[in-house]
Amino acid sequence: LIRIGALLEEHTHIMVVCDDLYERLVYDGDVHYTLAGVCSPSVRDRIITIGGFSKAFAMTGLRLGYAVCSDDKWIKGMGKILGQITGCACTASQAGGLAALRDVPSSWHQEKIAELQHKRDLLFARLQAIPNVVCPREPPKGAFYAMPDLGYYVNKMRELEGDDDTLADTAQLCEQLLSSQGLSIVPGEGFYTTQPVVRLSYATSVEDINDACDRLRDFLLSLETC
């Protein structure tokens, strides 16, 4: 973040929009820092910080978020556009967001973070137990996703189909997984990566995590025996 702030000082024509929706979901005792909070005050008027209630307060369906910038001209401009597109967030969403800020104690977030951290560790342990599934050296420090590398099995699938194309296609693997096991995971291509990774969410029950890992393991190992 400090390096990005330095670039903003050097290149005065650049603006940055920071997506900080997961700011409250940080694990292992780490602390979340915003770009605007660590950079020089001279560049803060070119930083727009985006936040919301969907992730931190489990209010996904209410579609409520906000933007912050030290230069209010950008916020006013965004307000004009929003006013022509949607008008505003619905009354129920606004009331829910206000209640979340006023009434939800910090202990609630602490409990949720501990719960998610346990589920994160469970998911990573289960993934690491599947042969040839490659996980990052360390689990993520925030949010609630895992992105293991399934390149070995993507290539195995292509060998079985007689496809000489060496480009990994996790979308094809995900389609076959859904068809054969009824398990839906997301290919990594949708997250700006060319690596053969997939995205799994552990914002669910322990039972569902174990069931999903069983199905994923069975599917991947079946590619070895075909």
TrEMBL record:
Query: Which Gene Ontology terms cover its molecular function?
Result: pyridoxal phosphate binding; transaminase activity
Superkingdom field: Eukaryota
The residues covered by the Aminotransferase class I/classII large domain are 4-216
Keywords of this entry: Aminotransferase, Pyridoxal phosphate, Transferase
Return the protein name. Prephenate dehydratase
Family membership noted in the UniProt record = Belongs to the class-I pyridoxal-phosphate-dependent aminotransferase family.
**One biological process GO term for this chain?**
amino acid metabolic process
Give cofactor(s), names only: pyridoxal 5'-phosphate
Question: One Pfam family of this protein, by short name?
Answer: Aminotran_1_2
